[in-house]
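Form 12-C: Joint structure prediction
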Amino acid sequence: MSVSDVTTLPDPDAPFVEDRRGLLWLCEREVVRFLKLWMQTLIAPVMSSLLFIVVFGLALGDTIADVDGVPYKQFIVPGLVVQAILTAAYSNNSSTVFQARSDRFINDVLSSPLRWWEVNIGLAIGGVVRGLLTGILLLVLGVAITGVGVERPLVLIVATVLVLIAFAQLGVIAGIYANSWDFMAFVTSLVILPLSFLGGIFYSVDRLPGAWEVVSHVNPIFYLVQAFRIGFVGHGDVSTWLALLVLVALAAGLSAWCAWLFRTGHRLKP
Amino acid sequence: MRPALSVRGFTKTYDGGFTAVDGLDLDVPDGSFFGLLGPNGAGKTTLIGAVCNLVRPTAGEIEVFGHPHDARNARRLVGLAEQDINLDRFLTVSEVLIYHAGFFGMARRRAKGRAEELMDVFDLTSKAKVRPTALSGGMRRRLLLARALMHEPRLLILDEPTAGVDVELRSELWEYTRKLHAAGTTILLTTHYLEEAEALCEEIALIRGGRIIARDSADGLRARYGADDIAGVYLQAMSDAAGDDRGAAR
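Section 2 - Result
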């Protein structure tokens, strides 16, 4: 077979018709990419969070008093689940977008007929699915091991959706702005991880001295942890509405920033 | 007849203030094999980037078969094989091809069939399940060309496709591109190999400092500059343009 045998020329004036939406293909590619590395992208983070539940919850939990009437081994599950979800969504998208820019195969997408918002959604969806699968696995294991329930499932569902949107978009933004792998490691290790631990995963901020309690309320991840805790155990350190409102603001702000980057091509196209 | 590519007053000034292309006009006729020659930094890759929606023009209009270059109707008509090997290292060879077709809206069955055809043509069938990182340089170069052809583009842009490849592969790539052109595909080729442009292109434009300084068939350029070959044309045209630039600066 010769290349001329397989060459047909499209009519330049025929309308552009998609037999299957390009957006679906891009979403599929992003999910396939992390599923190929499932040990690293799914099992490892779930095991890591599970170790916290086992060590702090089961091994040490009996020596720690109940927090607001909740056994300690159950108290830490919501925070660990949300931390695993947001880390998965962020790290998936920051690395995939940075690699696509660094190796320049993002040009394959940018030069295609995909619209800017389709590219945005398509590149974000890998982190959303990876975060969701991580969260579901950890939820199942957390419930089985600690017996924690889901008191307010609707709050948990809404909070999960908002966290996935916010951190999937944050990952895309980081991938677009990053100039090196060091930048991504910096954000994960020196921003997200400390904020998560200081966000009340392992304690109630009510127990902190006055100044530290105030500082905790400036940390956005604190509200994520609270929203998940309300979903799991029915109550937290702030009201449901305040926790969800902060999540909505975070998701909306990061989505708007991401949309601006794709619409203008800022940092994506010189 | 409507050109495959029409560029009017295209200017690109990068964020740092460097103007790579300044008011460039260019028409590439439908069905032609068109060569763009120029030194590094002349503006070839900037122009190609703008045509393919990878570079934001500062000013000017670019049309592909009469459609604004950033319209979906224009983008589906253009295929691009870049100078750099820009392949997704986590996908297999067949996945690289199939997903590319998918971004252009192809149905799964058709995309798979098309990928099989092109892997056959470019002798990549035995490597279908292999990742690009495991391919030889020549195979990666063939994969780039196959990917650019997946969505059946009417205008194929080849940015220095034979840079750094051995003589045998270069000959193969020449053969592929000749056949594509014979089948009606418009080809825009940039290259540093002057003999390549002379052997393949019906028309050649010389670009320097973001401006087209000469344009004609290889024969026409030889006659105009009184040169024996296209290398002589190139050196003379660049020298004349440098002289003009110095004169203008005074």
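Section 3 - Comments
The mean pLDDT of chain B is 89. Residues 86-152 of chain B form one domain.
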